[in-house]
Amino acid sequence: LFSQVSMMFAQCTQKCVSSVLLITLLCCILSPPAQASKSSEDIRCKCICPPYRNISGHIYNKNVSQKDCNCLHVVEPMPVPGNDVEAYCLLCECKYEERSTTTIKVIIIIYLSVVGALLLYMAFLVLVDPLIRKPDAYTQPLHNEEENEDARSLAAAPTPSGARANTVLERVEGAQQRWKRQVQEQRKTVFDRHKMLS
């Protein structure tokens, strides 16, 4: 039953991810050509004008075409009188900028779909996988032996108020002894399996 649930969950996750990727690919393919799809938010002209006489510096942005990207079309209202416009505009540096909001949207959709798939997989591992996985027959006796050793060492350890350092040392020594026993047990089981296989 659990294996069927996990198989269905995995298939559902794969279908969701593949459908999201298919939708994003269709958006990329079916989007109109670059020149036709340029909206007013995708293009702009940015003019950086430094301080001039008693006028402080300022940055001007305007949605205009590339041929109109100059100080005369972007700087509005003009902060200087008519006879100083030419000198002021020579100081301003204008740059034409364009971006593709469609590409940005597609990248965000792909990113969110990957994060969503990873979250679904994490939920699967946390919720369903422990129910499916059975305890290993080789590691369970060692785990039980560790718990018994811990209980024995806690019961046998003296608890006077001034002997806290001794109990810590005893715990460390007990942990070392348990570790040595585990290594010996693992060697023994590996050699036994090796003999059985050969």
Automatic annotation (TrEMBL):
Subcellular location per the Swiss-Prot or TrEMBL entry: Membrane
Keyword Transmembrane helix in annotation: yes
Regions annotated as coiled coil: none
One Pfam entry name: Tmemb_9
Domain of life: Eukaryota
Chief site of localization: membrane
Keyword set, alphabetical order: Membrane, Signal, Transmembrane, Transmembrane helix
Signal peptide feature range: 1-36
Region (Disordered): 143-162
GO cellular component: lysosomal membrane
Parts of the chain that traverse the membrane: 106-128
Family, similarity comment: Belongs to the TMEM9 family.
Name under which the protein is recorded: TMEM9 protein
Organism this protein belongs to: Ciccaba nigrolineata
